[in-house]
Design brief:
With 378 residues, the protein is α/β, with parallel strands linked by helices. Helix content is 31%, strand content 19%. A nine-stranded mixed sheet has the order 13-12-11-10-6-9-8-7-14.
Length: 378
């Protein structure tokens, strides 16, 4: 991503455009793994933004039995993943399966000559990050793009903040902070509760990813890359004994230039005004906002005045449309997508480092250099 510091922040008078962007041709999408998230977010997003869905597939036929009744724009329901991948009308595979065997599915789609939008997390296995460069190199040689559905990047307050950071309106970013002032999603008895350090590795991935992006985009000398991660998680008073994962977690990230980011989940917050407030502090000003649960807002503070930043759309479902739109636009423009798999892998490095830190009692963990190879947007 470009840090975009060539523009005088005093000249910034445009409303950031947070809407999804698509090329003229937005057809040829097939959803491989059309389960709950695909039907509650992907398909509504594609319907609302005129994306042509050639077809869908799920392991369980019952899962997709009513898809075409509820989403008539879907062309067909495939009998198998192989049938979907063999369809010449499919140009983009929306890979909405779980993270297990994710790279095998990407490999199969690339072998079939398809561009890929993979659900997040890209993986939670360190060995997959070692395997990823060769896979992305092969995709690159075939002229194929592999992106990740980091839809949180296009949550309107976060997206507007990203564009303002890139324009340099807060100067060089020195600190980022997030607090979860909201209830936790249902965890007890769900597959998420079986995932060790789930808050650190899965739930907070969107927050890690956007914070990493702001630190990098807010550093004109390129020294905003995160080099160290420190994390803890803990069980809380009132947490039911059958809950296997801790309900509190925090992550601290430090960049090469000394800038920091702090993410905190204090627990299952009891509040009548839920949201996820965030702050971005820079050498010339600050941004303050919130995302989710009707809390969307963003304001810019230049040290003398505070200005509300107009916002349009919503994370659910516009963010899901935007990730596919960015992939399609990148293919049309012949460039890496902003949400490339190579770039997303850098965020996976951070959450894996966070889990390692928590396992060691919260000691700082150095982040290794990226292992992602070609296709990075940075």
């Amino acid at each position: 991503m470009s840090s975009g510091h060539g523009r005088d922040p005093e000249q910034h008078d445009e409303t950031p455009d947070t809407s999804p962007h698509f090329p003229a041709d937005r057809t040829g999408v097939a959803i491989l793994g059309c389960g709950a998230i695909a039907q509650s977010a992907h398909l509504p997003a594609y319907r609302d933004h005129g994306v042509g869905v050639t077809g869908v597939w799920s392991r369980s036929p019952e899962t997709t039995a009513t898809v075409r009744d509820r989403f008539p724009f879907v062309g067909r329901v495939y009998d198998s993943a192989e049938e979907l991948l063999a369809d010449p009308e499919v140009r983009f595979v929306d890979l909405a399966t779980g993270p297990e065997n994710r790279l095998d599915w990407i490999d199969a789609a690339v072998s079939a000559g398809k561009h890929v939008l993979a659900q997040k997390p890209l993986t939670l296995a360190a060995e997959d990050l070692d395997r990823l460069p060769d896979l992305l190199a092969r995709a690159d040689e075939a002229g194929l793009r592999v992106a990740v559905n980091h839809n949180g990047r296009w949550a309107p307050p976060w997206r507007a903040a990203t564009l303002l950071v890139r324009d340099g309106v807060v100067g060089e970013v020195v600190g980022v902070a997030h607090v979860h002032d909201k209830p936790l999603p249902p965890l007890v008895g769900t597959p998420f509760d079986d995932l060790p350090h789930m808050l650190l590795t899965d739930y907070l991935l969107h927050w890690v990813d956007i914070s990493r992006s702001w630190l990098a985009d807010g550093s004109p000398d390129g020294r905003g890359a995160v080099t160290s991660v420190q994390a803890t998680d803990s069980r809380l008073p009132g947490q039911p004994p059958e809950a296997r994962n801790p309900w509190a977690a925090q992550i601290s990230m430090t960049a090469a230039n000394g800038a920091t980011a702090m993410l905190r989940v204090p627990g299952n917050a009891v509040t009548s005004r839920p949201g996820c407030p965030f702050w971005i502090h820079g050498t010339r000003g600050s941004l303050r906002g919130s995302v989710l649960l009707d809390s969307d807002r963003l304001e810019r503070d230049d040290g003398t005045t505070t200005t509300d930043v107009p916002l349009r759309g919503a994370w659910f479902v516009d963010g899901f449309a935007a990730t596919m739109g960015e992939l399609m636009s990148a293919v049309a423009d012949g460039r890496p997508p902003e949400n490339s798999a190579a770039d997303a892998a850098a965020s996976i490095e951070l959450v894996l480092a966070a889990a390692s830190s928590a396992e060691a009692g919260g000691v700082p963990v150095e982040v290794p250099g990226t292992r992602t190879g070609p296709g990075s947007a940075r």
